[in-house]
Amino acid sequence: MTDPGAGADPPLLTLAVGNTTLAAALFPATGTPRPLVWRRGGELVPLLADLLESWTGPRPRRAAAVTVRPEAWPEAEGHLAGLGLELLLAGRELDPGVALDYDPPAAAGLDRVVAARAAAERYGSALVVDAGTAVTVDLVEPGPRFRGGTIAPGAGIMAAALTRECSLLPPVPPPGPLPVPPPRTTADAMRLGVYLGFAGLVDRLVEAMLGAAGRELPILATGGGAELWREHSRFASILEPHLVHLGLAAMAGS
Description:
By secondary structure, the chain is of the alpha/beta class. The chain contains seven helices and eleven strands. The protein has two domains: about 10-90, ATPase, nucleotide binding domain (Nucleotidyltransferase, domain 5, 2-Layer Sandwich); about 100-155 and about 185-250, Nucleotidyltransferase, domain 5, CATH 3.30.420. Strands 6-9-8-7-10-11 form a six-stranded mixed beta sheet, sandwiched between helices. The longest helix is centred in the C-terminal third of the chain and has 28 residues, at about 185-215.
């Protein structure tokens, strides 16, 4: 990894390791954060190696990370340390600084907690819809405080389960323009059922969480499936694609 910006203040690298994805962003000492990569599937260490070896900007000295795959992390941490990066892991070196109304508190997913940190700092009270492999709808309040939320299958899980459990059905087509009801082919029936059904599922959870809050709140959409949900949702929402990275940067003091 080259270091053409050795004289500049080093940026912060943020890493969000999801169940099936790796996302990275760069936070320079000044200016706007820049997303670097979003990849689905693959082993964690090769993805990190490819990212860091192709670096062309100022070399980061620190990496702030959150992972929901702890079994894959020790090897990745060793790789990062070998490249001279100081690793700050959420829940270990990095305290999210979020009060947790959850039982037990340690069971709250750290990715959800880190996103809550950013949401509370930017909006105060908010509803966070994180549409990834799973979709979570979480209530966040100033403090910051994580009030809890729901967990449901994401669109990818719904599509995969439908094909796996129904022997006569083909794979679900990828997202795209939805057919006009009523669908008249199996492919159209599955596309409308999964993707409109996914949006309806999330909308119902948003409705329930707003009811629990007792008032209207900003609804923040993040995660790889955020735009799919927003396209078909009845709710107005704010796209915040880098919410977890913003939370990591805040925790690392960047």
